[in-house]
Amino acid sequence: MITSPIIISTETGKLQIMHLKRYWNKSILKREGKMAQDELNDEWQLDTTLLGILGIGLEQTIKYVYQNSPSFEEFETWIVNASGIPDQVKVKQFNRLFSADAINRSEPGSEKVLSADELKFWEQNGYVIVRNAVSKVDCEKTIAALCSFIEIDRYDAATWYNAHPARQGIMVQLFQHPVLESNRKSDKIRIAYEQLWNRTDLFGNADRVGFNPPQTEAYPFQGPRLHWDVSLDLPIPFGLQGILYLADTAENQGAFTLVPGFHNRVDSWINSLPAGANPRTEDLYALGTRPIAANAGDFIIWHQALPHGSSPNTTNIPRFVQYINYAPADEEKSKVWK
Question: For tag attachment on the chain, is the N or C end more exposed, with fewer CB atoms within 10 Å?
């Protein structure tokens, strides 16, 4: 369906970032209906890696492009205004993807975060908790930034349910803040991801934060309920996701919930379903869920094959979280969405 030539990835602009002009070009063509939305899906991981090194979120980028139809120069200016001058170390690492000087896909060094017992737990359960990944001081700063952004008082329940354009259910569209970026750079988080991927050439993303206040009659559980964020076309490739608890979180406080060990049986379960059945509409809670209680600064990493989601908050205090992930630029993605 492509009706215009696509700019090559090595053509750059004033920021000297490869693939950026191609990404903008594709986005404009899709906006104008000159390219199918699923065209060049094999570049999806490269696109998300690019946004990660720029420090901008996918949703905010799509929203800006579709609302403003910017020129490339305007797009680069918006990036700088939104997230600052891109980190040149990250830019250099990313640009090397397009050169003969390929990034070294080396195994992690001697520095470890996850013990042998924790790695064994991971293999069995498909998730692991990195304790004290971020300091409690920085967690408190993050909560303050989140509350200020959506104009609520952490300790005043009367403000928790105020409407705000950045709130989408329990998700808050806050992507840029110095403390968010500091949390993303946690050595413990990065090293844990390197251990699980068994490689060091990983790129961090720029995801949002979450605010889950107690449910009420006027504010029922917002979800998301158990789901997958990956295609269920088998076999599901290895992939990770992660969530940082910004405050101590009890099991009944809207805790992150998953089905432990399901990565080891997802193939057999899907294959056992009746012909034509949609795995996503099955009763996933019947598979055996576990809400994860943890403390401020603890970071949960899980295998993307696990059904996961939030849970009802039946306490009298909110849940605060930040989403952080690391992945290689060549992470395997299914070509078919099921």
Answer: N
